[in-house]
Amino acid sequence: MNILFLLSLFLFPIFYLLIIRRRRLLLKRLPPGSLGIPVIGQSLGFLWAMRANTAEKWFAERAKRYGPISKMSLFGKPTVFIHGQAANKLVFSSDGSNMSNHQTESMKRILGDRSLVELSGEEHMRVRKALASFLKADSLKIYVGKMDEEIRLHLLMHWQGKQKVTVLPLMKTLTFNIICSLLFGVERGARRDSLIQYFQHIMAGVWSFPVNLPFTRFNRSLKASAEIQRILKQLISEKRIELENGASSHQDLITCLLSIRGEDDQELMSEDEIVQNVMLIMIGGYDTSSVLITFIIQILANDPNIHAAVLTEQEEIKKSKPSGELLKWEDLAKMKYTWRVAMEILRTIPPTFGGFRKALEDIEFEGYIIPKGWQIFWVTSMTHLDDTIFPEPSKFDPARFESPESIPPYCYIPFGGGARICPGYEFAKMETLATIHYLVTQFTWQLCCKDNGYQRHPLPEPNQGLPIEIIPKEVV
Ligand code: HEM
C-alpha cells in the first residue's frame, strides 16, 4: 500500500508535466485564427452570412486570410475549418477511426441514435449496405414507372390549368409524395397527409436550438417525431403481415429492409433502426432534390440556349416512345445533357453547404494539429468555386462535365465522398431527370421577378420561392 502511495506521489507530477507539455505543444501547433467570444464565437457571423447568401464569400475571406486550415468556434464548439482537395481527401478517405460523423444535437434528439448519421464503423456499414440494397441503380430500375406516375399526377393537380405557380413549395410536395410512394409505400390519403404535416415540423426543428421548452420549434419537432415513429411502427407491423402472406419484398424501402436477413436468419435491422433510417431518408432526400429541381427550372428560364438544348434532348426521347408510355430506365440514361445541367447547378449552388466531423484523435494537417474532440467543418463550395479546378468558376457551363474524368478526385463533392457519400444519388438523379422531362415537354415558363438571389436556411432557397408564369404546350 505504502509503495503504491509513494509511486503515485512520484508518478503524478510526471503525468501532470507530460499533460502540460502536450498542451503547450498543441497550442503552438493549433491552426491560425481565433475562437472569438466564448460560446458565441463566429456562429452569429456564419448564420448571418448563410441568410444573406454571402457564406461562400465569408469563408473565401477566411481562406484568403488564413490558408487551407483555420480555427474558429461554431455553435459553442471549437472548430477547424478546412478546405481544398487535400482537406476533402482527409475527410472523405477517413475510415472512421480518426474522425466520426457529427450532427447537430437537435438532429440527434429528433431522429434518435440508431440512424446512419449517428452510426460508425461496422454498424454504419451494416445499415448502409441494407439501405443501398434498395437505393442502388440496379434496384431502382423497377421503380421508374411508379415515380413517373407520381410526377404526372402532380402536374395534373398542381400545374395544369394554372397561370402562375411558386416552384419551391410545389417541388417539395412532389419529392415528398415520391418518397412516400417509393420508400414508405404509403398511398395518397389521410396517412400521407398527416405524415407531411409532421415532417414539416421535424424539418423546422432539425436546425433549431435543442432546448425543449413548450411552444418552441424544437418542442414541436420532438412531438412530431414521436407521432411519426408511432405511424411508422404501425406501418411496419402491417408490412410484416403482408410479407408473411407472400407479398413481394420489392414493394418499397420498408418491405425491402424487413426482408433482409442476417446469418442467423433474423431481420438484419432492428425496428428502431428501420424507423430512424426511414425518417433520415426523408430528411436527407426531400429538401435536397426539391432545391436542385427548383434551380434547374430557374436556369432554364434565364438561359434560352440551355433551355433549347434540354428541350431538344427531351423531345427526342418523347418522340421515340409510344404516346402515354411511362418513362423507363433506358430513357433516363439518354438524358445526358440534362444531367450535366443538374451537375453544374450542384457545383454552383450545392444544396449541402458542407458538413461536420469530430476528431477522435489529434489529427495532423498542413503542419497543424486538429485537437482530439474538436469539430471539423468541410465546405463544398470552396473547391467548386476554385478557378484552378474549374476555370471561370462563376460562369454557368454544363460542358465542364462532358468528360467528368478530367475533374481531379475530391474536387466535385455535392454528394460528399468516401464511406459516407450520399446513398440517395441515383434516386435524386432519377427524380430530377423524370421531373424535368415532363416540365419542359408540357410547359413553357418565365420568371415573375428577375431576382435571382437566394438565401440559405441552411439549404439554398430562391427569394420568394421562385414564382413563375406558366403556359401549357399544345398536346400533340
Ligand atoms: C440533390 C440531392 C442530394 C444531395 C445534393 C445530397 C447530398 C448529400 C451529402 C453532401 C451528404 C453527406 C455526405 C457526408 O457527410 O460525407 C449526404 C448524405 C446522405 N444522403 Fe444525400 N443528397 C441528396 C439526395 C438524397 C436522397 C434523395 C436521399 C434518399 C433517398 C439521400 C439520403 C442521404 C443519406 C441517408 C445520407 C447519410 C449517409 C451516411 O451518413 O452514410 N440524399 N447527402
Automatic annotation (TrEMBL):
Its cofactor is heme. It comes from Sesamum indicum (Oriental sesame). The gene is LOC105174850. It comes from the Eukaryota. GO terms for molecular function: heme binding; iron ion binding; oxidoreductase activity, acting on paired donors, with incorporation or reduction of molecular oxygen, reduced flavin or flavoprotein as one donor, and incorporation of one atom of oxygen. This is Taxadiene 5-alpha hydroxylase-like. The keyword Heme applies. The keyword Heme applies. GO terms for biological process: sterol metabolic process. Heme binds at residue 422. Gene3D superfamilies: Cytochrome P450. Its main location: membrane. One of its GO terms (cellular component) is membrane. It is a single-pass membrane protein. It is found in: Membrane. PANTHER family: CYTOCHROME P450, CYTOCHROME P450 26. Keywords: Heme, Iron, Membrane, Metal-binding, Monooxygenase, Oxidoreductase, Transmembrane, Transmembrane helix. Belongs to the cytochrome P450 family.
